[in-house]
Write a structure and sequence with these properties.
The protein is 33% helix and 18% strand. By secondary structure, it is an alpha+beta fold. The strands form seven sheets. Strands 2-9-10-11-16-13-14 form a seven-stranded antiparallel sheet. The structure holds 2-acetamido-2-deoxy-beta-D-glucopyranose (5 copies). One 2-acetamido-2-deoxy-beta-D-glucopyranose binds next to helix 11.
Amino acid sequence: MHFGLVSALALVSLAVASGADSLRPTRWARFPTGVIQPRGWLKAQASLQAEALTSHLPLFWAEIANTSWLGGSADNIGGIHESTPYWLNGAVPLAYQLNHTLLLAVVDKYISGILDRQHPDGWLGPDTDPDDFWSRYPFVLALVQYHEAQPRVAPERTRVLKAALAFFAAVERRLAARRALQLWSAARVYDLIWALQYFAEAVPGGSASPRAAWLLALTRQLRNVGFDWQGAWFGNASAFPRVAADGDPDGMWTHGVNNAQAMKHGAVWSRQSDNASASVAESLQAWRVLMRYHGQPHGIFSADEHLAGRSPSRGTELCVVVEGMWSLALLAQASTDDDGATEALDALQGVAFNALPGGLSDDLWSRPYLQFPNSFQARPKEDDHVWASDGPDAAQYGLASQYECCTANFHQGIPKLTAHLFFEVSDENALVSAIWAPCELTTDLEKGVGGGASVQLRTEYPFGLHAEYIIRNPKAFELRIHVPKFLREVDGSSQDSTSLRVWVDGRSRNVNIVDGFVSYEIPAWTLPEPRVAVRLEWTSTPRIMRTDGHGASVFVGPLLLTPDLGETWQKVHSYEFGAADWDAVASQNWRYALVPPEASGGAHGFGPVVRRSPGARPFAHSSGACPLVVNATLLRLAPAVWPEAHSAPTAPPKLHDARGFFVEERLMLPYACSALHVAALPEAPPVEASIVL
Ligand SMILES: *[C@@H]1O[C@H](CO)[C@@H](O)[C@H](O)[C@H]1NC(C)=O
Ligand SMILES: *[C@@H]1O[C@H](CO)[C@@H](O)[C@H](O)[C@H]1NC(C)=O
Ligand SMILES: *[C@@H]1O[C@H](CO)[C@@H](O)[C@H](O)[C@H]1NC(C)=O
Ligand SMILES: *[C@@H]1O[C@H](CO)[C@@H](O)[C@H](O)[C@H]1NC(C)=O
Ligand SMILES: *[C@@H]1O[C@H](CO)[C@@H](O)[C@H](O)[C@H]1NC(C)=O
């Protein structure tokens, strides 16, 4: 490494003169990468990912094995070098969260190899296009996580900080010659701004230091040359599309992944803006308009390359899913009140438990580019397809069907979910349990809540019906638990609103849900063995959620369900190790409607929900192995009633009469336990006894 810090330091003095900029803390503090570790089913899923593509891609996939970031000829598609940075952005946290010896060694090799090749002027990565700032953003995100996962005194920490500062100085020099960033670099600029904010706090002296002032001045400059997502898009009723943006094949603004990333703009900027709650509200509004006009029952918006409207036959790209999850986590963290945080956390878990695993095979060796609420096949070479801008392989489960990005980028999904399961509010001595999923953490001995509390969250949620917080806490602290939406609803269709019960240190307690949270004081516990400090139990039965004109969906808790379509998989191409491309089709009828309650003895004819402990493949695509199934009485529709078009179901039909159709009992599975789905169903109107039973 030949560059020094000279240039970065020289610029510092300039910035100091131009006035101080301050960095507000977010309301909740996130724990550094590696502090929260997955347990139970979440560890099974994380380990599956680590043993499958995350650790194997560097062994056989040219984009990472021969990456241009280490001098190779690959990772160069269209002049962009994003694959290795994308992969590192997930592989780094996964390695630390699992303490995975092999993966730790692999990410070390990549990070140190890339830093070894840093250009004398500080620029990082292959420099083939002076306008390509973008390829570097996910690498800098990986650097943040790598930096914070190191012990405080590690030499790697110093090295990463120096490299990052030298890179930011190079960014500043390149910006001086430009009036605007281009394309992806402009659309995704808030990812870089987030990283700059992190390093502004990580420099010696912290965010009040001259070097931090320089970094924050650079964030303002970047904001000025990036897209104005609020003024020109999310907050602009004459610009934001209310229907599928199919006529915009090159558009940066309509691009699904750009929108998923841009959602974070207000949450990120709230740390520097004049009005934090107004900035956070902009991110919340972005999420709301995306879901209002493009939302899908699997929890995220459609974008089969570009925003695609609410038809359940339209697709969503896996990159939209993982980027949307990270934006929602940042929104929850930055929200200035519990209402906003609650909305973001409800949304985040909907995506995390449906669209994320639903966009991957159950062994985590393959993925489709697009997933669909309603689809009866996921085949290669679908020339007559329903999605707009993507090619004929976009629905196929494979190594890199349609395009490489999602193969490289999906790795961040599970690790970033894990990293945001808990937050800390130090000055209120409070720990926030944001989403129920099994994990364990120990807070900082000196500054952490509860005097270095260790907390294990033991639960099989979203499959199970209880959660336990097993805690050892030298000092008392407040535990704030986000209660998922299905347990807060009081509308007539829900039987769940009163079902939550809570015990603290063995004593039954009142359940007083305020703005989505219950809070309990956890008395100090200094015995060497932790105890079950808090236990929660609830019930959850199938519920129907309706979207105007786009069908009705069945949920159990946060899990979206689909009738089991009996998918059959045929291998069409093998790569090395476990990687392959597949052809998946339904072996069973997909045309069903929900029957009205009175035709089926109440509650829309659902049998008991059968739950099993998740196994080594938590989202097993098999009715015999997946953790939750329920029988449903459904109305079988004739092809003429619900036709297909372009190899996909047409819109769920409006049924005027249920007579003449057969009623069948069908097994329903979680959406993510199936490659093929009918997750938005028509509903039959109330009928007389003429129905054929
Ligand atoms: C990497 O490049 C080398 C040299 O060009 C080639 O022999 C090798 O097959 C490539 N590996 C992969 C995984 O593409
Ligand atoms: C990680 O694993 C190593 C042994 O493989 C062990 O020495 C170390 O303490 C572990 N670290 C953490 C944080 O669990
Ligand atoms: C809002 O969108 C319209 C239509 O695209 C555009 O003309 C206008 O400049 C936008 N407003 C802002 C503040 O960007
Ligand atoms: C900040 O913005 C909110 C709206 O989001 C507004 O209600 C509040 O008055 C603003 N605060 C200040 C100090 O301007
Ligand atoms: C579903 O129904 C079938 C037959 O009607 C029965 O054999 C099966 O055990 C049921 N499964 C569940 C999960 O209720």
